């Protein structure tokens, strides 16, 4: 029988670099022929490894940035525009520039009808704030290089209620040095005129998805989803060529060695990540919602691994309930301690609605440094404790010379170790007690903000009750000897059911069949309105918050009630079994 160590020992850095070079030899904008050739290459490799594949296309709303022109007080500056931003009229925009710092609340006075200059990467929240304040354009001061971004808040393809949610203003970025010159002109002259032209292409087009699956040894519907995007900004050797290479290398090793898995492993390669706000993964979630809800035990995502100087392994994203799986693999392979960071609203994390636990987007990061790039990345990656994926991320400089074969091999081994554990463990490695503890910690903050709200008080009571029930389950099951296969399967199905509720409560604001916008979102988003209560002054605002919280706690508590009932029923059954065994 093939062992985990035997698989890990077969990770070949030369094969990883070969796959990376082939994937990243062309620019892969979503929906283009160049991107499709990369998908065909990946499919060809998977078939050679013995996998049955499904390569198909779906319609998606896609955006490719075009040409730009920026002049400030008559001086031209190099700039780029961004996916999903608005194009200017053909004659361009002629207006004044106003500097608003990093776009924090309170910096938007006197911007109506003008263009704003904002410190940092072009992110949807800042664009939306500028638009709401009446600005007609936004110019972001990026880092040493101009970083490509997508500025829409719409996650995947739009619903009928979202068709008007796309940006209506022009959005440009300049590099850090030029940005400082522009800021100096604004701050010193008082009047700074600009001319802005930007072309952004937006269209409905076909994008590919590639699926392959390694089936479990015994019949089961359970599977682990292992995914990464193929589309890229520029050649994208790191983002996301190395991730695709890692997926192919893991598929090669599994296809050749044919290990025995208890759960199937499903490989998914997406398009529309960079140019459609995760359109590919969102379409897959929408089209396979029930299967994901019923049978997907975890989503493991991979993005931008194996870069040179990527020595930080402690800050990759995880849910509280999935952290231990990555921590174990990182310790085994690299000897490092994994702290993890809570997921933000980013990446191909399109499966929270169906209640699928998530683990990782990126894995390895740069050391934090005092540079414009690192300062910008600290707001996007790893809670600011890591240094992001490298100064070349989302730029023309993301090329093969930025890859370390040794670090890529290390990262591949870590992912392979994680997937082995998830696919072979008898008991599902999702720690629901950690999930409920995390929920309880955030709930304490909301309850403190509104201690007299009856709905929140009931929420607190039910969370504590569920925590105790889960603790009892874990105490019995994890210490039980000689569990039968049926008993282990029953535990796993209970664990999956609990995930469907806790992931939804911890991470989802809208209903589970839609997708929250790509904006910063607080933990337990249904209840976070409680934090606004002390800062409002009017009766209308206070009563509106109380009413909103009452409705949201109704939803929250109803889901908790279902989890409590399921856990009580399951706990009753395993206590009965334990009692019978003890009496023999």
UniProtKB/TrEMBL annotation:
It comes from the Bacteria. The keyword Coiled coil applies. InterPro entries: PA_dom_sf (IPR046450), PA_domain (IPR003137), Peptidase_M28 (IPR007484), Peptidase_M28B (IPR039373). Pfam families: PA, Peptidase_M28. Residues 97-182 form the PA domain. Keywords: Coiled coil. Residues 210-410 form the Peptidase M28 domain. Residues 456-483 form a coiled coil. PANTHER family: N-ACETYLATED-ALPHA-LINKED ACIDIC DIPEPTIDASE, VACUOLAR PROTEIN SORTING-ASSOCIATED PROTEIN 70. This is M28 family metallopeptidase. It comes from Sporosarcina koreensis.
């Amino acid at each position: 029988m093939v062992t985990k160590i035997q698989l890990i020992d077969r990770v070949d850095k030369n094969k990883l670099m070969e796959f990376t070079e082939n994937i990243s030899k062309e620019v892969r904008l979503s929906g283009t022929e160049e991107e499709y050739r990369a998908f065909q290459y990946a499919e060809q490799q998977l078939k050679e490894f013995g996998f049955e594949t499904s390569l198909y296309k779906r319609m998606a709303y896609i955006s490719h940035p075009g040409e730009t022109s920026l002049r400030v007080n008559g001086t031209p500056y190099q700039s780029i525009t961004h996916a999903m931003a608005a194009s200017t009229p053909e004659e361009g925009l002629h207006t004044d520039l106003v500097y608003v710092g990093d776009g924090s609340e309170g910096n938007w006075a006197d911007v109506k009808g003008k263009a704003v200059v904002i410190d940092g990467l072009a992110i949807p929240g800042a664009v939306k704030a500028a638009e709401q304040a009446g600005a007609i354009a936004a110019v972001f001061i990026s880092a040493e290089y101009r970083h490509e971004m997508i500025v829409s808040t719409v996650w995947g393809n739009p619903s009928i209620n979202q068709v008007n949610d796309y940006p209506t203003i022009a959005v440009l970025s300049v590099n850090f040095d030029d940005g400082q010159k522009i800021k100096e002109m604004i701050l010193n002259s008082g009047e700074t005129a600009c001319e802005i032209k930007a072309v952004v292409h937006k269209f409905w087009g076909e994008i590919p998805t590639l699926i392959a699956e390694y089936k479990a040894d015994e019949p089961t519907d359970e599977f682990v989803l292992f995914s990464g995007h193929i589309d890229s900004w520029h050649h994208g050797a790191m983002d996301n060529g190395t991730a695709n290479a890692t997926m192919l290398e893991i598929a090669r090793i599994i296809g050749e060695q044919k290990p025995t898995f208890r759960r199937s492993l499903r490989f998914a390669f997406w398009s529309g990540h960079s140019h459609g706000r995760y359109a590919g993964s969102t379409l897959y979630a929408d089209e396979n919602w029930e299967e994901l809800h019923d049978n997907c035990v975890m989503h493991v995502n991979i993005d931008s691994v194996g870069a040179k100087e990527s020595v930080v392994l402690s800050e990759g994203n995880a849910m509280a309930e999935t952290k231990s799986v990555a921590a174990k693999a990182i310790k085994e392979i690299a000897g490092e301690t994994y702290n993890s960071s809570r997921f933000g609203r980013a990446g191909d994390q399109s499966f929270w609605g169906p209640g699928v636990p998530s683990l990782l987007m990126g894995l390895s990061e740069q050391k934090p440094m005092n540079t414009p790039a690192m300062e910008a990345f600290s707001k996007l990656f790893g809670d600011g404790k890591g240094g992001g994926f490298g100064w070349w991320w989302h730029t023309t400089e993301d090329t093969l010379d930025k890859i370390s074969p040794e670090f890529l091999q290390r990262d591949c081994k870590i992912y392979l170790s994680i997937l082995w554990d998830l696919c072979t463990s008898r008991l599902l490695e999702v720690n629901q007690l950690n999930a409920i503890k995390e929920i309880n910690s955030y709930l304490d903050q909301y309850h403190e903000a509104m201690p007299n709200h009856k709905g929140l008080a009931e929420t607190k009571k039910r969370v504590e009750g569920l925590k105790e029930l889960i603790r009892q389950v874990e105490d019995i099951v994890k210490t039980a000897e000689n569990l039968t296969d049926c008993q282990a399967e029953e535990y796993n199905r209970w664990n999956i059911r609990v995930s469907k509720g806790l992931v939804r409560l911890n991470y989802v604001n809208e209903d589970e069949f839609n997708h929250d916008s790509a904006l910063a979102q607080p933990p337990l988003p249904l209840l976070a309105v409680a934090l606004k209560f002390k800062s409002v002054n009017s009766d209308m605002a206070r009563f509106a918050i109380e009413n909103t919280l009452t409705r949201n706690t109704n939803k929250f508590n109803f889901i908790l009630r279902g989890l409590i009932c399921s856990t009580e029923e399951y706990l009753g059954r395993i206590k009965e079994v334990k009692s019978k065994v003890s009496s023999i």
